[in-house]
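Researcher: Good morning. I'm working through a list of sequences from a screen, and I'd like to move beyond sequence-only analysis. For each chain I'm collecting a predicted structure so we can compare shapes side by side. This is the next one on the list. No need for commentary yet; just the structure.
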Amino acid sequence: MKDQLLARIDSKRADLIDLTRALVQIPSVNPPGDGYQACCDLLSRRLKQRGFDVSYHRAEGTPGDSERYPRINLVATRPGARSGPCVHFNSHIDVVEPGVGWSYDPFGAEQVGSRIYGRGTCDMKGGLAASIIAIEALIEIAPDHPGTIEISGTADEETGGFGGVAYLAGIGLLAAPRVDHVIIPEPLNKDRICLGHRGVWWTEIETHGRIAHGSMPFLGDCAVRHMQAVMAEFESTLFPYLATKTTTMPVVPDGAKQSTLNINSIHGGLGEQFDGLPSPLVPDSCRMVIDRRFLIEEAIEDVKAEVKSLLDGLTKSRRGFTYHLNDLFEVIPTMTDQNAPVVRAVHSAVEEVLGQQPTYVVSPGTYDQKHFDRIGLLKDCIAYGPGILDLAHQVDEYVDIVDMLDSAKVMALACANLLGVER
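Model: Good morning. Structure tokens for this chain:
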């Protein structure tokens, strides 16, 4: 069966290219959330022809959902000939904006040699297409497979996944015990298995001041100067402290093996959405958004306390300093055990297809595994798929066709293993 399955995938090379190009040519940019309906319709037409039961699920009320930009998700299910586990392949259908500086049309899906260029080729429509080709080949070779095979196309991963996997996990669709094993074809390189990700805490810090005429700043209190004091404390105290925190998690790249903090944005004083000169005012508010990535060895309470302690110290040492914290987003680190069934199945398949042992890695940023884990209580979940991680969100993003074929072979063999298909 193995040789037949791998040969069948090779025979689908042209189909894989066409499917990838068709998906990339739908500009499902998020934000705002364009093209979700079109992506789901493309997948629905194809998967229904292959015997899948298809359902749509709009995540009403989630961030960004509106009548103009509905958060639409697709779940396709194919029951087998007899009982067995449910193996689920989950891919997000949203992509980030293309930006400027492309050598190719970002939504043209142009094939150049063995590469397909375009926004979302790598992250992660190439992985979605590869998983579909993998499962179609398996169904053709083993139509009477046990268990259940599922494929989902979900919204909003690029903006947190709350209108996608989080919603579906919350209503029990992408959750234990309904689903047993999950593979997310994110672009982690075809010889690597991603076990999980670091944690994240986004918060907005606001410093307060007192408005006054800009020619008489001594009559006011500049909130931007108060924020500068926060940044000075970050530079002298917090950044050096975070650099001492390291992890046993196999995070890539090496720089992410320590705790990090990024200053995402700073806004103080008058806005910039006007023509002409600004009025002379002392700013009475300044807001900074920080993006703190933390390790499995750290507790979220301690992560927050580090920043709060620094700010509380400034209220005592700096005249007139007051602040407000507004938490925006938090995710606890997650890491699947290397002995979990899905890890063992993909490990064995990588050895068979590539002739080498895979490397275990952990992502520096989060992806939808967080929702399978924390909401769906589904621990047997990894990311594995084609594409080079460093190309995600870059100009001239591409996916290699051979990498997609190899990844499809790995996913097909791993799925057969997990379902118990006779080899």
